[in-house]
Amino acid sequence: MRWGLGLTRAAYAIGRQELGSVLTSPMPYVWLSAALALAVFVLDSHLDTIDGLGLGVYADPLIYPIALAGLILGLYLALSASTTITREREAGTLEVLFWTPTSDADLVLGKVLANVVVAAVLAAAVTALLILGALVTGVASRGDLPLAALALLGFLAAMAALGLLLSALAKRVRAAVVILTGIVVLFLSLRVAATVLAALPPEQLSGPMLLLRDGLLVVSAAAGVASPVQHFVWALEALQAQDLSAYLKAGGASIFGLGVSVGLSVLALKLRGVRP
Amino acid sequence: MAGGRGRPGSRRDVKASDAMIHLEHVSKRYGPVSVAEDIHLRIEAGEAYGLLGPNGAGKTTILRMVLGIERPDTGVVSVLGETPRRSGWAAKRRIGVVGEHQHLYEGLTPREYLRFFAELYGVERPTVRVDAVIDEYGIGSYADRPVRSLSHGMRQKLILARAIAHDPDLLILDEPITGLDARSVRDIRDTLLGLRKAGKTLLLCSHVLSEVERTSTRVGILHRGRMLAEGTLEELTGLFDEERELHVELAQAVDAAWLSAVRGVEGVIGAESEGRDLVCRIRAQGDVRPAVSRALVGAGATVVEMGLRRLSLEEAYLTLTDQVLEGAEKRVGR
Questions:
Q1: Do A93 and B104 touch (CB under 8 A)?
Q2: What is the pLDDT of residues B216-256, one digit of tens each?
Q3: Which three-class secondary structure state does DSSP give residue B280?
């Protein structure tokens, strides 16, 4: 039976069950508290600068807090989603779900739906806090906050979908977490190495080092294109540059990434099956 | 009795549309281990079929193939006239399953759990149906407690309720009474007998012979992935009784003259007595009861009751599996 948005009743049921399971666990609140604390810290440091200098000029003072809170919450959602199918696979409940007429797509869509709702709640909480902070402290925003919040939502949903893909692929929870950690570390290492090498003057680099730098820049750029983090950064940069077209492109990339992750998750579940 | 073995390599058409479950020449291996070997199985609507075998015999693998969770390496599986699929197979609305292990969502209450599965099965007005099932299966007293706080018996009752809540035509049960106390076993057995009476088709896998004997109309004996025999209880227990036992209860203690009178009856191999009870070993062919009765009455005895005892399912099962083990030992030259 198909309901709205092309989702089946089974997908809605799975989504609701997953949502209940996430929202009744302490983890989202712990991570949200950490993200909000970081956002408040950054906002406070802006105020300290203003106090010290008497003036602070920012394209939008709320963009950095939202970016840092977003990275923390994105990591949480990816981690949380990366265990959702593997946990059921390990516990044996995944096989029980497939004793019913549920399809692979129902399962993945249900889980994505739940994570998008969690992402919306988290994004709303961060945005609400920043609005409150702006009102209380008098820090002026250029009015980009709704678009930044939307970019945050897209980023969080894309990170959750990426986690879900790993969850569909991995046999065990531990394997999923290790793979996700590996991807994050690899991505960060690439970025740091490429940034360091790019900052060095070409005359300090020998032939092989030049080759390594160019190679790393290409790989880093390619990884960036597929990375939800990069799409989020692009969106925020576009907001700071007041470039709506670039913002929409970044948003489109984020949504496209989410769709690819969902499609690959269905395929991975089909291939991997229900047994650990 | 239907033969348990399929003909390897034969290309018979599978006429499965009228069978609830039909397996034809089905084989499955996990690496070097054969878990199902040329299995042939046909279960008609309304039958209660017991698949009997020890742990590791291949029962669960067959169930997983029936549900589309596993695919056979060779052969054809047909359930409700269709080839089972793991994902999105609509015919699963007509199938209820009780698995070997209690895989539950520990944080949900039974009411939430039943509602969740009612929705997955596409039950109309799931809340109303779940309330009815909770009443019907006596789950009300713990319907709103978390599953993690329930006893093994309560959990098993919940799993059975989940399997039945969408009113399936076919119910598949894998070791449904393992680890349960006597009261829970009785409750579940009563439920299964009720379903059988209601015309539901049951496929019960168990290593508990007495349970299969009580709930099934037809039994398959599975051992090391092979179907050793299949038939009704009568057919299976009649497989090995070249000799049977005739139990006779007399009004008085058995006299030596009565014993010799009975031993003289054609078809009686031997006779022993204890108090008023007389046990005769007789040949399976022919009915010697009238002749034994006449011999005893002629010798002055008064017969109170007389009854034939055939092999139990357990004895038939053990005899069959012993034969397989002996055959294997012979093959390795022991």
A1: yes
A2: 999 998 888 889 888 887 777 666 656 778 889 999 898 88
A3: strand
**Cross-chain Cβ contact B86/A12 below 8 Å:** no
Domain B242-309: top CATH class: alpha beta
B189 has pLDDT over 80: yes
Chain A residues whose beta carbon lies within 8 Å of the beta carbon of residue B93? 101
Tokens of B211: 């349970």
User: In this complex, do A10 and B119 lie within 8 Å of one another by their Cβ atoms?
Assistant: yes
Lowest mean pLDDT among A217-231, B62-76, B317-331: B317-331
Residues of chain B with CATH 3.30.70.3190: 242-309
Nearest to B18 by CA among B92, B80, B62: B80
Fold of the CATH domain B21-237: Rossmann fold (3.40.50)
* Contacting residues of A for B108, CB less than 8 Å apart: 17
Strand pairing report for B201-206 and B170-174: parallel
Within chain B, which residue ranges are assigned CATH 3.40.50.300?
Answer: 21-237
User: How far apart, in Å, are the Cα atoms of B330 and each of A72, B133, B227, B229, B326?
Assistant: 68, 54, 20, 21, 6
Closest by CA position to B223, among listed B312, B311, B319: B319
End-to-end CA, chain A: 30
- Cβ atoms < 10 Å from Cβ of B218: 20
pLDDT score, position B15: 47
Mutate to test the interface with B, among A8, A99, A103 (most CBs of B within 10 A): A99
